[in-house]
Amino acid sequence: FSNELILANKRGVEVKIILDASAARNKYSMQKILRKNSIKVKVENFGGKMHAKSMIIDDKYFVSGSMNFTKAGNIRNDENTLIIENSKLTKEYKQYFLTLWKTIPNRYLHIDPRSESFESGKSCVDMIDNDFDKTIDAKERLCFKE
Fold first, then answer.
1. pLDDT at 47
2. What is the rounded distance in angstroms from the CA atom of residue 104 to the CA atom of residue 16?
3. Residues assigned a catalytic role
4. Buried b / exposed e across 70-82, counting CB within 10 Å, b at 16+?
5. CA separation for the pair 140, 134 (Å, rounded)
6. pTM, entire model
7. CA 57, CA 32: separation in Å to the nearest integer?
8. What is the β-pairing status of strands 40-43 and 54-57?
């Protein structure tokens, strides 16, 4: 999938991706390779809560479902994915995506915020273990000033 995005980008297709902060630190994440190939990848700084799995294709198709766009999501997991051909719905979702895109600082095109730290919104006070390390908020090392 990543290779196809890289090829599309080389053909002049605009490719923009928003990744969840937790997923970006996963050993299987491809954002470094995508970025190296000039694809705009922003990692959200909302505290690891980005869970939308969707795509917008040619302002005509909207793809959404439970599937993570990973090898496991594509081959092993039981998932659902809908491909909806509806320009109106697709354009509305594109506006939502672009709004999210604008709210994420451009520095996160190059670096990845931690999902539980002061750089990730209210993740240090939300009582949620955003980085799945069994440590929450004030006990999280990156959530207090030294």
1. 67
2. 13
3. 51, 53, 58
4. beebeeeeeeeee
5. 9
6. 0.82
7. 23
8. unpaired
